[in-house]
């Protein structure tokens, strides 16, 4: 009897996992003991014993509800943080494994989506209107669930689906089957295209993926090539990837010593779809369990900013997510005893309960120029690969993938991909060194007040590159009179979601209190996005909600006589009808559009910018910030 026959045919094989990782021709077989833990810090990863071989130690299934560990909102559906403590491993050649897996998929009854197409269109429209249209964030991912049921053993259905995914799905980061036995157990099978985070020899990597081209929309011949080029230049698709790139750079800013370096973009080919993607890399010395915690969860499955995205998801989704949007996390040790981590995002997978209930969750990324019809189609496409593997959808025609793959080698397609980086920030595209000791702002202290948008982490790295000593604290911790805030050479009031005129919002009230104190002290102050808006209100400017949100929008703007390429993430903007104001805090210069929309303000010892100088969309953020801060923080005389 073969190993796979034993796992699939034995009445009680215990918990196990089958994994094929990207680029490998081997199927890993993991067996061990199953336990549940409360926190990511509790995941077992014992020190390597003398002479112990390198390899995996624990496979964790991290549910979406684990977000509560960071204090974020979520529907608590009780899904456990389960971990397989690995005691036995084996490897099979993929071709041999395929020969051992069942080639007939047991019957399953298709029950359709839990939210039908019309109801999902209405849900998409509501999120666009009520959340993105009111400054709650730049993008949100709202899912629905394709349901089915089977009378077959979940292991047999999952094994047959795994065979189909191994032979038919392309471009997956992990193709997997995980079986957790027992009354409350689950069997998961899928093909995840996206690495969430990995750590190997101290190098952390993430993999933002977004933008979706459905292969069935790609015709043959020259028209198909033109369709791919249109996809690569489509503003919605470009915006989606830029926003998740910024969002994952925020996470890398926390876990990597100097933030992440951007590599790419690339095309990611699946069987039904082609995506665009980047890779992010950075050195880290954090425990891998802390890396997992600080990166919960991918913006491609949640939205931005992450904390408010969690609130929006909890409000608009009708049920808990179980493992959808969470991660599989393989924790181990390398040959030197160092920690390793490999964690794909849990999506594009089926979740089968012991009674034969099947769920395949799929979500659309909603941005300012989304349309309900296109997002309905996107969820059908994203669920399609797994539903096909389960025998619930017909297999796609084989030609579309071959056509798109062939077009990807076209020089014009390669040029279109490269063009996406032409006006992105070189700061994030290049490998970075520490700031020189003689930097003009070297040694100056800055406290960044985080108003619930972790763009502040990226901002911290940009300011450190100028030689500054940076601390970041949440707004609820920094009250007027805070000793550290008063002593800082510069106080930065950061971005955050919401209406800057909402006096019922504690973050807005706190920013205004800090602005009033700092202006009264005539101490250097910088406001960014929400911080800038609250500053503008205190300077007497009117506030306007844009008809079309400026979320993930790069623009060339005139900043006090110099044209700059900058990135906006905002729904609100201050308005001014003059380039110069007289205020109780002195004269204020205003950089604005011809229609009065304000991009920046500056006065004696203070400034505010509506855009994000730290964003990958701002072409030369460090130089821009350096010039602006040189007027706020004159170089001290020797």
Give an account of the 3D structure:
A hairpin with a 2-residue loop joins β27 and β28. α6 (235-255) packs across α13. The protein is 29% helix and 32% strand. The strands form 3 sheets. The chain has an 18-stranded antiparallel β-sheet that branches. It has an 8-stranded mixed β-sheet with strand order 20-19-21-22-28-27-26-25, with helices on both faces. A two-stranded antiparallel ribbon has the order 23-24. It is an alpha+beta fold and 638 residues long.
Ranges with pLDDT <50 over ≥5 residues? none
SS class: alpha+beta
Distance between the termini: 81 Å
- The helix content is 25-40%
Query: Compute the gyration radius: what is it?
Result: 26 Å
Name the shape in a single word.
Answer: globular
Question: How many DSSP helices?
Answer: 17
Strand content: 25-35%
Q: What kind of sheet is the major sheet?
A: 18 strands, antiparallel
What do the pLDDT scores average to? Answer: 93
**Overall strand count:** 28
What key attributes describe this structure?
28 strands, 638 residues, alpha+beta, 17 helices, 18-stranded antiparallel sheet, 8-stranded mixed sheet
Mind sketching the topology for me?
Blueprint: H1 3-9, E1 16-21, E2 26-37, E3 55-62, E4 81-93, H2 94-100, E5 109-113, H3 117-130, E6 139-149, H4 154-168, E7 174-180, E8 186-192, E9 195-200, E10 203-206, E11 209-214, H5 222-233, H6 235-255, E12 261-269, E13 273-283, H7 288-294, E14 303-304, H8 306-316, E15 327-333, E16 339-344, E17 349-352, E18 357-366, H9 372-389, H10 399-408, H11 411-419, H12 426-429, E19 445-450, H13 455-465, E20 469-474, H14 483-487, E21 490-493, H15 506-521, E22 525-528, H16 530-538, E23 542-559, E24 562-575, E25 580-583, E26 586-592, E27 598-603, E28 606-609, H17 621-632
Parallel strand pairs: 19-20, 19-21, 21-22, 22-28
Antiparallel strand pairs: 1-2, 1-7, 2-4, 3-4, 3-15, 5-6, 6-14, 6-18, 7-8, 8-17, 9-10, 9-16, 10-13, 11-13, 12-13, 15-16, 17-18, 23-24, 25-26, 26-27, 27-28
Helix pairs in contact: 3-9, 4-9, 5-11, 6-13, 15-16
């Amino acid at each position: 009897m073969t190993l796979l026959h034993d796992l699939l045919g034995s009445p009680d094989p215990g918990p196990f996992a089958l994994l094929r990782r990207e680029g490998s021709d081997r199927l890993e077989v993991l067996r061990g003991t199953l336990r549940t833990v409360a926190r990511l810090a509790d995941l077992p990863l014992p020190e390597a014993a003398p002479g112990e071989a390198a390899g995996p130690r624990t496979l964790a299934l991290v549910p979406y509800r684990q977000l509560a560990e960071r204090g974020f909102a979520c529907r608590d559906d009780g899904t456990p943080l389960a971990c397989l403590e690995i005691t036995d491993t084996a490897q099979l050649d993929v071709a041999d494994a395929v020969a051992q897996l069942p080639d007939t998929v047991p019957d399953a009854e298709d029950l359709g989506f839990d939210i039908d197409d019309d109801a999902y269109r209405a849900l998409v429209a509501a999120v666009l209107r009520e959340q993105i249209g009111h400054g709650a964030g730049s993008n949100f991912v709202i899912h629905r669930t394709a349901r089915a049921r089977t009378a077959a053993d979940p292991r047999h259905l999952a094994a047959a689906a795994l065979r189909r995914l191994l032979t038919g799905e392309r471009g997956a980061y992990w193709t997997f089957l995980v079986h957790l036995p027992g009354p409350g157990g689950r069997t998961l099978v899928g093909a995840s295209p996206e690495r969430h985070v990995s750590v190997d020899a101290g190098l952390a990597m993430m993999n933002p993926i977004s933008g979706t081209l459905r292969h069935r929309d790609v015709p043959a011949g020259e028209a198909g090539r033109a369709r791919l080029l249109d996809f690569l230049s489509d503003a919605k698709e470009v915006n989606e990837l830029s926003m998740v790139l910024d969002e994952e750079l925020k996470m890398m800013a926390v876990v990597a010593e100097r933030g992440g370096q951007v590599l790419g973009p690339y095309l990611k080919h699946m069987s039904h779809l082609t995506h665009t993607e980047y890779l992010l890399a950075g050195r880290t010395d954090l425990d891998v369990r802390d890396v997992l915690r600080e990166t919960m969860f991918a913006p491609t499955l949640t939205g931005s900013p992450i904390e408010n995205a969690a609130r929006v998801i909890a409000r608009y989704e009708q049920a808990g997510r179980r493992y959808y949007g969470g991660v599989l996390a393989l924790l181990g040790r390398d040959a030197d005893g160092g920690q390793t981590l490999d964690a794909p995002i849990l999506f594009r997978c089926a979740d089968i309960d012991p009674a034969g209930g099947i769920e395949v969750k799929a979500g659309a990324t909603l941005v300012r120029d989304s349309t309900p019809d296109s997002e309905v189609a996107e969820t059908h496409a994203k669920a399609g690969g797994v539903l096909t593997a389960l025998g619930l959808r017909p297999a796609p025609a084989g030609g579309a993938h071959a056509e798109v793959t062939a077009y990807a080698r076209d020089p014009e397609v390669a040029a279109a991909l490269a063009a996406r980086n032409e006006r992105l920030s070189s700061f994030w595209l290049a490998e970075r060194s520490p700031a020189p000791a003689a930097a003009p702002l070297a040694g100056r202290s800055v406290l960044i007040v985080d108003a619930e948008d972790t763009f502040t982490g990226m901002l911290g790295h940009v300011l450190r590159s100028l030689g500054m000593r940076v601390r970041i604290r949440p707004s609820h911790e920094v009250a007027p009179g805070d000793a550290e805030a008063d002593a800082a050479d510069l106080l930065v009031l950061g971005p955050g979601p919401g209406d800057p005129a909402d006096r019922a919002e504690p973050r807005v009230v706190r920013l205004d209190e800090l602005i009033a104190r700092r202006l009264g002290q005539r101490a250097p102050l910088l406001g960014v996005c929400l911080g800038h808006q609250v500053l503008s209100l205190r300077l007497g400017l009117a506030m306007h909600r844009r008809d079309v949100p400026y979320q993930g929008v790069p623009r060339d703007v005139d900043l006090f006589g110099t044209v700059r390429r900058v990135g906006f993430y905002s729904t609100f903007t201050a308005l001014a009808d003059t380039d110069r104001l007289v205020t109780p805090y002195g004269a204020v210069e205003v950089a604005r559009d011809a229609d009065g929309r304000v991009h920046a303000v500056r006065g004696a010892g203070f400034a505010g910018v509506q855009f994000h100088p730290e964003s990958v969309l701002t072409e030369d953020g460090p130089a821009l910030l350096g010039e602006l801060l040189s007027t706020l923080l004159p170089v001290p005389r020797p």
